[in-house]
Amino acid sequence: MKQFLTFVRKEFAHVLRDRKTLLILFGMPVVQILIFGFALTSEVKNSRVLIVDNANDAASQQLLTKIEASQYFEVDRSVMSPLQMEAAFREGEIKMAIVFPANFNEDLLHQNQAHVQIVTDASDPNTATSLTNYVSSIIQDYQASLNQTLSVPLRILPETRFIYNPQLKGVYNYVPGVMALVLMLVCVMMTAVSIVREKETGTMEVLLVSPFKPVLVILSKAVPYLILSLVNVGTILLMSIFVLDLPVAGNLLLLLAESTLFIITCLTLGIFISIKTSSQQVAMLISLMGMLLPTMLFSGFMFPIENMPVPLQIISNIVPSKWYYLIVKAVMIKGLGFSAIWKETLILAGMTLFLFVISLKNFKIRLA
Amino acid sequence: MTETVIKTDKLTKRFGDFIATNGITFEVHKGEIFGFLGANGAGKTTAMRMLCGLSKPSSGSAQVAGFDVYKQTEQIKRNIGYMSQKFSLYEDLTVVENIRFFGGIYGLSNADIKTKSESLLAQLGMESEAKKLVGSLPLGWKQKLSFSVAVLHRPKIVFLDEPTGGVDPVTRRQFWNLIYAAAQDGITIFVTTHYMDEAEYCNRISIMVDGKIEALDTPRALKQRYNTTTMDDVFYQLARGAKRSE
């Protein structure tokens, strides 16, 4: 045990001494969360908005002027049939349509409330949410200015509708995706490279000649990355709670336990790669091409798997991150419990066991 | 009667049709500096790997430090030290960290490591470099440090695989002083080299050609037998008949 700890301490020294890598390790999740969360979705200015003003009365005109004044919208006034509107959406000419009913002003004055329909293209969920929020706040603002002079408050009720993606899927999808990506990168690549590095420098031979058990050599290499990865999971969760306002809906402990399982899957994968390769470059390339790319493509976080051709859907099943992604989405966003994810958990555990066994087998062969 | 620490009998390793080490039989005595010579590809490294427990022999038998190379590799590993051709310390760790690590994996106690690393640094005159990264040291120092680390746990035998490759003559001389000092302490030295002047420093040498040991004796006796004055000539006469090379 003491020998094991000596070894683990040495591995930590390697990791902590390599400042550049360390910066990448801990900076990466932060940067990715920020990029995916903000940079990629900030382009909501000057979105083309169609206004169908069936009322064309005093109130609708006033509200329209307010909307037109906003820098977020490029307003297009015209009368369109619902069918034409749909076509405009489909061709991506407009991002949003605001439809006033024929008797907007009248409803407002006599019934003290009126409806406005806001239809948004939600295929880009982040933009859709922002646009809807902008319009709603403009409407609220207008409503407040009307009510200043009135004793009976008027209400304008926006009816929001998202088309193409009514549940706004994808808003938060990237958080579980980033988790899968970061863990994959840290555990698989770093572990593989750190073991292969010892082969390259010749220190592996010295370790194998020592009485220290080869299996322990490998295990103690995995320990620092397990801990670093847990830190990364923590960072991502903290950022998603405090920066993105996305709380963990389900059980936090369950999420951490599942993350640990996935980290172990990745570590075994890294170890397997390191056993099969003998140079750092090859290990890195295999990790990047063989692991990172499939994670991006097949975990479902960038491209929905349901839309892929069947052969690709089948391939996606062997990508561990797909299952982890499903688990995190279920626990973190939908707030589901273990009963909803036991199948995915079992698959991940099975993959880990499989990788562990074949690694062990190959490791022995290499030594003989 | 001197104590035998390595004893092999027709030790053989085959890789498919290729016989890397072909029935070698020899003995090494305690405290001896044993030179293990041979051209590239003669089978030295394979033989050494078998003796270190890294590779299982195909046939024949061997005992290292009294333990069997088939069944008792764990005990063998506990009783030997090893320094490979490639520099084998961690360049991104400091001198002291390397010593502590290797001491640690051989199961030395902290107190033991502390006293040993102090005397080691004093012996090498490297006290002021203790906290420097090994990567920043000159090659000669690294090699000397590497050797000292390989014998840190006081093994019965230390295997040195071309330890002085690429090192200048002065440092090589200093390196051999370390080897002598270790041998004086009763550590058996098993060393491969391509430098014939180093072969002269050995008590006995064996010369391998094409997987077989063609000659084994003291340098003086070998020179007499082949009727020459230099080890270079002895080696040349034996090795020029070699069919395989790398």
UniProtKB/TrEMBL annotation, chain A:
Q: Which PANTHER family match?
A: MEMBRANE COMPONENT OF ABC TRANSPORTER YHHJ-RELATED, MULTIDRUG ABC TRANSPORTER PERMEASE YBHS-RELATED
Pfam families, sorted: ABC2_membrane_3
Q: Which UniProt keywords apply?
A: Cell membrane, Membrane, Transmembrane, Transmembrane helix, Transport
Topology in membrane = Multi-pass membrane protein
List the protein's name. Answer: ABC-2 type transport system permease protein
Cellular component annotations (GO), alphabetically ordered: plasma membrane
Q: Is Translocase given among the entry's keywords?
A: no
Q: So where does this one cross the membrane?
A: 21-40, 174-196, 222-244, 250-275, 282-303, 346-363
Which molecular function terms from Gene Ontology are attached? ABC-type transporter activity
Segment forming the signal sequence: none
Q: Which residues form the ABC transmembrane type-2 domain?
A: 132-366
* Highest rank taxon of the organism: Bacteria
As for subcellular location, the record says:
Cell membrane
Q: State the similarity comment.
A: Belongs to the ABC-2 integral membrane protein family.
Has the keyword Transmembrane helix been applied to this entry?
yes
Name the principal localization, coarsely classed: membrane
Automatic annotation (TrEMBL), chain B:
**Where on the tree of life does the source sit, at the highest rank?**
Bacteria
**Coiled coil ranges:** none
The reply to whether Ribosomal protein figures as a keyword in the UniProt entry is no
Q: Which GO terms describe its molecular function?
A: ATP binding; ATP hydrolysis activity
Pfam families (UniProt xref): ABC_tran
Occurrences of domain ABC transporter (ranges):
6-235
> What is the name of the protein in this document?
ABC-2 type transport system ATP-binding protein
Biological source species: Chryseolinea serpens
The opening ranks of the lineage are:
Bacteria, Pseudomonadati, Bacteroidota, Cytophagia, Cytophagales
